[in-house]
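Sat 14:20. Reprocessing the chain from the morning session after the first attempt stalled halfway. Input below, unchanged.
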Amino acid sequence: MFTISSKFYRFGVIPFHVTTGSRCIHSVVCAVSGGVDSAVSAYLLKKKGFQVKGVFMTNWDVLDEKVDCSIDKDRQDAQYICEHLGIPFYEKNFVKEYWNYVFLPLIKSYEQGATPNPDILCNRFVKFNMFTKAVLKGGNHEDNDGGNGDGDSSTSSSLKADAIATGHYCRNSFGAYLQHKRSDVEAKLLRSADPVKDQTFWLSTISHKELQHCMFPVGDLSKPQVKQIAQDIGLSRICSRRESMGMCFIGKRRFSDFIDNYLEPKPGVFKDLETNLVLDEHTGVHHFTQGQKARIKRFTGPYYVAKMDPKNQIIYVVRDPSHPSLFMRKCWCGPAVWINSYPFSLINSKNIHFQWQNKWRPVNCVLKPFEDVSSAAAYVKQDIQRRDHHCQIDNSAALANIIDTSIEEGSRTTGPCLAVELTEPMRCIAPGQWSALYDGEVCLGAAMIYGSISLWEEGQTALYKWNLSDYELTYAG
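Finished this time. C-alpha cells:
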C-alpha cells in the first residue's frame, strides 16, 4: 500500500509525497548535468518533499586546453541549478571508470572498423552501475566525491541516498517516484510519454537491479512541458542551452583529428564495390563508418561507405545513397543483455521490435537464438547467393574479443547470440552498434550488432527507394 498527497500543477497532478509501505524513500540523489531535463527532475523531486541532492558526474579529464569542451560550462550550470533550487551540490569523479569501461573499448572498436555507442556503455557501466552503487545507501564504491564542488571529501557520508533520479525520458514500471515498488517483482523499463524524446534506447543494457532504485521524473512529460516548467520556475537560462550531442571531449575538432591522437594511421584504399577498382587512398578505416560520405579525389560529388575490411584496410564505396548495399534486413548479434529474464515466449515470434537508432522508428523482427556468434552468422548467410568475394566480410571474431570482456561474469542475464530478420530493410546497420529490443512499450534489453547482410549481397541490384522521413520518429500532425 502507498499513500500520495498531491498538488495541482498546470500540466496535471504531480504528487509531492509518497510513502511505500514501511519502505519510505526520504532522500534522492539526482544526477544534474546542467541541462533542462535534469534541472526539472530535481525540481519535481523537491516539490514532492524528497530530500534532494544534486550530483554532477565528471567522466572526462580535459588535459588538452585547446579543446573547446563543454564540461566546465556544464558544471557551472549544474551548480547554478542546485543553488537556484536550494539543494546541495556534489561532484563525483568517474574519470578512471569511464576511461576503462567506455573509452578504451570505444577506441578498440574504431580500430576494428566498428561503430560503437559510448552513451550505451556509459549508462551500463558508469551511470547506472558504479554511480548508483556510489550514492545509494549500502553502496560499496570507493568514495571520490568533491562535496559541494570544493574537494571536501568530509561530506561523503551525507551524499548517500535511498534512491537516484535522472532526467532521462523513460519510465519505470514502479512509477516515476517508485510509488509502486514491490520486493516480489522486478522493475521494467518502459518507453516515455514523449515518443520522439524517448531515451530507453540509451538505457537498454542496464539491469533491473539498478532500475529498482531509479526515478525518472520527466518520463511522463513531453519536452515542451519540461521546458515550460523550467521557464515557470525561473530557469530560462537553462532552457536556452543547446542540447548536448555526441562526445563532448572531441570539442570542435574533426573526428578524424581526435581519433588520430589514439590510433596510428593505417594507409589503405577505397575500392568501388561493384567493379573492385581502386579509386583513392585513405589513412585508416577508423576514420569512417558505414553509410558515411567519402570524398574521392578526381571525382565530383560524394561516394558512400558500403563495407569495410579492417584487416586489409579496404573501404568499399558506392556512388548512390540509395544503393542496395546500404540497406539490410538481416543481421547477427553478440550475447544479448536482458534487463529482466530471458523472454522465451517472444523468441521466434514477430512481436519483438528492433531499434538501432534512437531517433529512428522501431521495426518488427524475428529473433533466433544460437550458442555462439559464428552459428548466428552462418544462419543469416546460409541462403545468401554470394555475388563477389569482397562483399562478404565478417569481423565478428575481432569484435567479440572487445565486447566479450565487457560482460559482467555471473551478474547479468546474457546470451544467447542472435540472428535477426527484420520485416523491412533498414539503412546502414553497422557492426558495433546496439540493437534495442522491445515488447510494445517494454524495453527487453539489447545486443551488439556484429555483422549484417545487405540487399546487394542478397542479390538485389536495383536502387532501394527510401525517404529519411520514413525512418525518423516525429510528432503526429
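Residues 1-17, 141-155, 404-413 have pLDDT under 50 and may be disordered.
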